Amino acid sequence: MKHTVALVGNPNSGKTTLFNQLTGSKQHVGNWPGVTIEKKVGQFTYEEHEITLVDLPGIYSMSPYSIEEVVSRDYIMDEHPDLLINIVDGTNLERNLYLSMQLKELGLPMVIAVNMMDELQQKEIELNIAQLSKELNTPVVPISARNGEGMNELVHSLLHNTNSSTYIYDVQTENILSRIQTLVEETRHDHTHDKFYAFKLLENDELIKKNLNFNETQLNELHSIQRDFCVLKNQKDIDMAVADTRYMEIERIVSHSLCRPCIAQMKSGSDRIDSLLTHKYLGIPMFFVILFVIFMITFGPLGSTLQGFLETGIEMFGEWSTVSLLGLGASDWAINLVTTVIGGVGSVISFMPQIMLLFLFLSLLEDSGYMSRAAFLMDRLLRKIGLNGKAFIPMLMGFGCTVPAVMATRVLENEKDRKMTMLLTPFMSCGARLPVYALFAGVFFPTSAGIAIFSMYVLGIVVAIICGLILRKTVFKGDGSTFILELPPYRFPSFKNTMMHMWEKAKGFLTKAGTIIFSMTVLLWFLTNFSFTLQMVEDPSMSILGNIGQAIAWIFTPLGFGNWQSVISLLSGFIAKESVVSSMAVVYGVGTNAGLETVLSQVFTHASAISFMVFTLLYSPCMAAVATVKSESGSWKFTLQSILFQTGVAYIVAFIAFNLLRIFI
After folding, report:
1. Does pTM top 0.70 for this prediction?
2. Where does GTP bind (predicted)?
3. Which residues are known binding-site members for GTP?
């Protein structure tokens, strides 16, 4: 038997972790709002049941105040899933049950999964599951998604409790809802979700009102009912009256089901840590100190040693391949092609240890709950450029990959904020640019590579702030939107989730190395070995790529790297930033990373090397990111403007950096 199950819950309730536990899906698990933007689908089987599980965006209510809430509500209302799993955070039951009450009003078969049961036990909080189930008239299952506890019980309960029921409020509220349901029945022939519609009309939901298309008489009757309800609840505002009704019920339910003997101790742990990490003056410096330590570990002795081992292995493989091909009597061009591909792809793969270390540390920060604090801290800074802390979420994701970062701008309700964040997010250095920094820093700043690379990341943030100030006073005039962010409690990161996240990022990098970079390396080999007449040439400067590069190299002379090889490498970066290093290996005709380092030390100066790193940091992101900007903005004009804007900024900053540094270095 087949079932479609929707997984619904608040942000930070462990929803995505539960999704991964049930489906085995390798989706990133974070600990800050906005990580799941679109619905995710996974499949699993239980006994003879085939279950399709839909992971909906994390939401706080069924009111369409944000894009996430619209996506979730539309799916539940329009797609009609067979069953619902509502996951709630047991350590924050009151807030989570607000959504549960709204889901109950839909009258769909539902099971409530109370997560974080292990944390409740640690804090000596007693939750009476049977009483909670009785109060809600819904099956309730205790789980620990992080540890995988209670999974079988949850699925069994879900499949064997398919009865639907709505929540019964007090008599006065039920009478009010009954009066509105009479109005709804006059318009709707389908009577599913009638109670939900009634409650939404009571709280003046504009989308529902528009959907039902009430006439003037019906609207007047609705307004009369709303006034009566406000009088009953002793409230002037209908929204407050409805919220107060739900929270009074939640208060009663929790008081009957939950016993907290140590509230003060429960809150003190996170509070003590936050007193330092979110301090008004020390918070931001602490954030940068944490990042600095991460970069020093990643690109210091540990990262460099691991890279050296892998680099040696790749070089040995290249030498073995050459000897093997010579033994097989392969032609010179075939040997040259193979060694070029190994050198090009290998030059990128050799940085895998450092990339994996960086992703490991960032994953630990996310899963511990610290990144929500970072967004809170950056709110003060971002407000100065007219954005809010919520914009820090896509910007932070930009340190991993610009594509999901641009997609994450959907968490911003204001259109101006979204477009401005799309323009600024690519300045956050994505992981694909890391091999370029690591290569140049290793050659020109071997004793302080970590500091050099950390400086690139800081420069990206500084440039984003300066550009934001300029854009807010010119193109995007107006006030920014308000920012409300939940700070989840600090948690020890799950080893499984952390490793899963790191591997997913590493796998994505390796996939690019095996596909895009491999293809680019082969293409560049052809373009650097053949002329426009398709004749093989010995001098790369006479090749197709050499001629193209020489024609435009003069543009980059003021930046200190006006040689065609560097220019071609940057152009290949528009396809994929990872291919910049492999392209350099190809156009300079070297088969090993050591050989490339030797060439670069002869071609670049310290000033021009920094200029190249700065330009790589700031110029237009890869083709996939540009396509995402087009998809999210819906405008080719804006997309082209973003390419020109980012590349223009890169040129100006690199020009300033080169001409200042060559005076002092």
Report:
1. no
2. 9-16, 34-38, 55-58, 115-118
3. 9-16, 34-38, 55-58, 115-118
